[in-house]
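Structure tokens please, single chain.
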Amino acid sequence: MKAEYINPFVNATVEAFDKMLGCQVRRGPLTLKTERGTNFDISGVIGLSGNAIGTVVLSFSKELALKASGALLMSEMTEISDEVVDAVGELTNMVAGAAKSKLEELELSISLPNVITGKGHEIRFPSEVTPICIPFESEWGPLTVEVGLASVVAPVGT
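Here you go.
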């Protein structure tokens, strides 16, 4: 995966949390994701297609998901509910959409977000992709952004 594919997702995450939620997030060191399971309780997943294919995952600690959802919905959240699931999906959509606009040369389309809940849930990326994991810390708790994106090679003669 090309390094220039990562920064739009980092920047989009920082901007979404700052502008939409009033929450500062700090990026940690990038790592390659080697296992399928997540460290957190709730993940927003978006598929990407076009001149690249792949998946973007925002995986939230329960505490962060509740606080972020509460900030979006202007209501205190105490448990993972349908409203929290919808808010995580919307945040994932915002991050993916903002990053997509910075990757214009890839002419990407993004899918509707899916949200998965439960401890240790698994996310599968395309088999030809080794995702990059970008950890973030905030005053509300941790999250990770996982990006697995590969350029599509056009067949010879097209």
